[in-house]
Write a structure and sequence with these properties.
Elements (H helix, E strand, L loop, with lengths): L17 H8 L3 H9 L19 H15 L4 H12 L5 H42 L36
Helix pairs in contact: 4-5
Amino acid sequence: MSEDAGGLSTRNTGGLSIGKVAEATGLSVHALRFFEREGLFLRDIPRSGGGQRVYEQADVDWLLLCGRLRDSGMPIATIKRFAALVRSGPGNEKDRLALLREHECDVRAKIDDLGACLDVIHGKVVVYEQHLRDGTAAGLWSPTPGSGPTLTPTPTPTPTPGQESASVTG
């Protein structure tokens, strides 16, 4: 019996069962059936004489790619469109590339947004660490304005009648 690069046996078994594919991809059997119903595979999944689905390593590799695309935020409809392009064969590579470039831009924008969030969080970590070292952490992020120290020594403007205090800097 031989093993493919993923360690899954494909010889003498006539392919991979749905359970083995679920195990290899981390997808549930239900999800695999959903992928098939939605036309997300690159081919029709054949059945054994007993009616069981028979997958090949190429199907597993495709599912792993789809998982990465999905994890990166690509909508199922876009994965479906990409699968349809790949399934249709040569001649639409520019369309595939355009789809992937658009998604790449979306992912880079998300990474930039997360980087900005991380900068804010890291700034708060540094401030809390400093207050803990200095012994001035009591009252950080007080639930009511003015009832404890603030994390940044900025003056709080006096609100005009009808305005709420906007400065809780914990």
